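4.2 Preliminary Data

To establish feasibility before requesting continued support, the project team ran the inverse folding procedure on a target of 493 residues. The structure was first converted into the token representation described in Section 3, and no sequence information of any kind was made available to the design step. The complete token record follows.
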């Protein structure tokens, strides 16, 4: 047995609070086309479970405190770490099957945090669905997981076991190391004391809750149900945003963050915009190829006061983010405990809006003899009010190929139509931020049309100014108008 990491502790407590099943699951579905050897794939997954102890761990409780208990590969198979082959009558049944798989309610005390199913749709058509609980993995874990499945499958096809080098450490080693590295809060010379001192000052006066253009009043307890919508930013915008970032000494992530902060201010959230941002937390080479929960959440605070230009706002974001990255060792859980925000079952503490940025290819296991492609998994849960995941795509020549915006939203607060307007509004703002003169103020980015500035962008003011009966209709009117104007400017630039 071993102690839990700080991130695992919070996830363990959340799992006992009756959250919606699947809220903290990480699903991956891959369509496999071609002659697949199902027994070889079954053996390969068993090899991967044996390799990564995090995938064969249960979480026992004694005196109210949890600990990690690593099972043997044989015990893990009995506790759920085995692939089931399920035959489906056709494609129409797949969406429901994937949604049910992704929402699997793990009993972490007796069940390992991995569930694998192979849905058979035909002789040469299968969908491999893997669901891992966040307590055992993070988004960055999917790449080594997919790579190891491919290597093991290749070996099993050849009639043997995979001949890979042993992993230098396992996740339980990291959990012990994390506690030793941070030290005790009572020790003024410890890393955790130094980090806490920084963040107490950096987040002093942080707003407890962002005012968002919600369709419904916030319930007393978050339901956890959610949905997702997707929008795209064209390759031309992507390229010019990357150029702007480079000229400013910033990253593309920072540029998108500046756009999102400007958007939220325009939607009535105020000028102090805290965003949650996941960071990999894999600073040691020994853990880079490990499946485990290393991710940490940083609170990135953006000041949009004074109606800055977009380049001025980007400079603010850059300065804040670089300082935050220099103090990224403090677990988010400790930050919550130290700052003691007003506790509420209705929302997440410190941040209600999250921005994640992906610039890697989708993690696909390259299984020998078959073609692999990502199979979409329906999103039915939401951990935050709004979670923006922006994925950077590459063109055929390796250059910027566009940005994909996936917005996961809480159904407690938003309709799908409003979430779609918000996602489109972000895309529109990013387009207009580079087609307009860089000296333009942020209040003009979203709501500009030829010869007129719509200066007041609060939801009620937008409804009145556009003569719309509902806020939703106002959004539709202004976003469509802004998109058309921005694209016309981009065409003539």
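Position-by-position output of the design step:
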């Amino acid at each position: 047995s071993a102690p839990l990491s700080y991130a695992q502790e919070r996830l363990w407590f959340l799992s006992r609070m009756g959250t919606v099943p699947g809220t903290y699951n990480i699903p991956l579905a891959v369509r496999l086309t071609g002659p697949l050897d199902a027994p070889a794939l079954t053996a390969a997954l068993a090899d991967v479970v044996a390799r990564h102890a995090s995938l064969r761990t249960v979480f026992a409780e004694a005196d109210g405190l949890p600990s990690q208990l690593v099972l043997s590969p044989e015990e893990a198979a009995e506790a759920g770490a085995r692939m089931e082959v399920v035959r489906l009558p056709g494609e129409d049944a797949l969406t429901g099957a994937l949604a049910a798989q992704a929402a699997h309610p793990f009993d972490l005390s007796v069940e390992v945090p991995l569930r694998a199913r192979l849905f058979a749709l035909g002789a040469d058509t299968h969908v491999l669905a893997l669901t891992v609980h966040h307590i055992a993995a993070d988004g960055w874990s999917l790449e080594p997981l997919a790579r190891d499945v491919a290597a093991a499958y290749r070996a099993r096809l050849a009639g043997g076991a995979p001949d890979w080098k042993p992993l230098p450490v396992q996740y339980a080693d990291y959990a012990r190391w994390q506690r030793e590295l941070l030290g005790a809060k009572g020790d003024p010379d410890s890393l955790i004391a130094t980090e806490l001192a920084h963040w107490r000052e950096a987040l002093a006066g942080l707003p407890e809750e962002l005012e968002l253009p919600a369709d419904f009043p916030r319930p007393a307890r978050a339901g956890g149900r959610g949905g997702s919508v997707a929008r795209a930013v064209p390759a031309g915008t992507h390229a010019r945003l990357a150029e702007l970032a480079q000229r400013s000494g910033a990253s593309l992530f920072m540029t998108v963050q500046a756009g999102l902060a400007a958007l939220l201010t325009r939607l009535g959230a105020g000028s102090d915009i805290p965003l949650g941002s996941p960071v990999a937390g894999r600073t040691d080479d020994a853990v880079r190829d490990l499946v485990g929960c290393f991710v940490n959440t940083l609170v990135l605070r953006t000041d949009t006061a004074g109606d800055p230009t977009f380049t001025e706002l980007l400079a603010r974001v850059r300065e804040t983010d670089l300082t935050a990255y220099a103090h990224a060792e403090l677990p988010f859980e400790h930050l919550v405990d130290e700052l003691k925000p007003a506790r509420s079952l209705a929302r997440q503490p410190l941040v209600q809006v999250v921005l994640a940025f992906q610039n890697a290819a989708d993690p696909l296991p390259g299984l020998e003899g078959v073609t692999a492609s990502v199979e979409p998994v329906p999103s039915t849960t939401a951990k935050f009010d709004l979670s923006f995941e922006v994925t950077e795509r590459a063109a055929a020549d390796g250059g910027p190929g566009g940005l994909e915006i996936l917005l996961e939203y809480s159904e407690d607060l938003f309709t799908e139509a409003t979430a779609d307007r918000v996602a489109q509004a972000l895309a529109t703002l990013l387009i207009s931020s580079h087609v307009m003169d860089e000296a333009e103020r942020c209040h003009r980015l979203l709501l500009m049309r030829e010869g007129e500035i719509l200066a007041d962008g609060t939801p009620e003011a937008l409804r009145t100014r556009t003569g719309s009966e509902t806020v939703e209709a106002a959004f539709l009117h202004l976003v469509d108008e802004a998109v058309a104007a921005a694209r016309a400017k981009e065409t003539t630039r």
